Amino acid sequence: xxxxxxxxxxxxxxxxxxxxxxxxxxxxxxSVHRARAYSGEFDHSVRRHDHSAR
Length: 54
Fold this sequence. Notes:
This protein is mainly alpha-helical. 74% of the residues lie in helices and 0% in strands. It has a domain at 20-54.
């Protein structure tokens, strides 16, 4: 019910901009980028931990 209300409100606003839907391929590429970014953050935190132990 809340989703329908939000959609009705958004449609009624004259300055509301809508974003194009992403294709399955675009979503897949974004998920790969997120996974790489997450693994990079994990690697850095492990390296920082290892360095601080010395």
